[in-house]
Amino acid sequence: MLKNAIITSLQEAKAEDIICIDLRGIDGAISDFFIICHGNSNTHVEGIYKSVDKNVMQLIGERPWHEEG
């Protein structure tokens, strides 16, 4: 499942305060889940991004639909 692959990747990259919000009960929600975390520096955040991008592709073959920032 995509959500689990993302959370696993975040944990491996030592992302902090990982929060997963379930949006499935909200009418008109654009996604099922919203995952939030943070890093300690720009370098850490870049590493988190790269970890998620690489690991999710390897685990389930998914690429991001859209990237921001």
What does this structure look like?
The chain has 69 residues and is of the alpha+beta class. The chain has 2 helices and 2 strands; from the N terminus they run αββα. The longest helix has 19 residues. The radius of gyration is 12 Å and the shape is globular. It starts with a helix and ends in a 9-residue tail after the last helix. The model has no long low-confidence stretch (mean pLDDT 93).
Short synopsis of the structure:
With 69 residues, the chain is an alpha+beta fold.
Q: What profile does the largest beta sheet have?
A: 2 strands, antiparallel
Distance between the termini: 25 Å
Question: Kindly state the mean pLDDT as a whole number?
Answer: 93
Q: Tell me the strand order in the biggest sheet.
A: 1-2
Rg result: 12 Å
Provide the low-confidence segments as ranges. none
Number of helices: 2
User: How much helical structure, as a percent, in the residues?
Assistant: 40-55%
Write the topology of this structure:
Elements: H1 2-12, E1 16-22, E2 33-38, H2 42-60
Antiparallel strand pairs: 1-2
Helix pairs in contact: 1-2
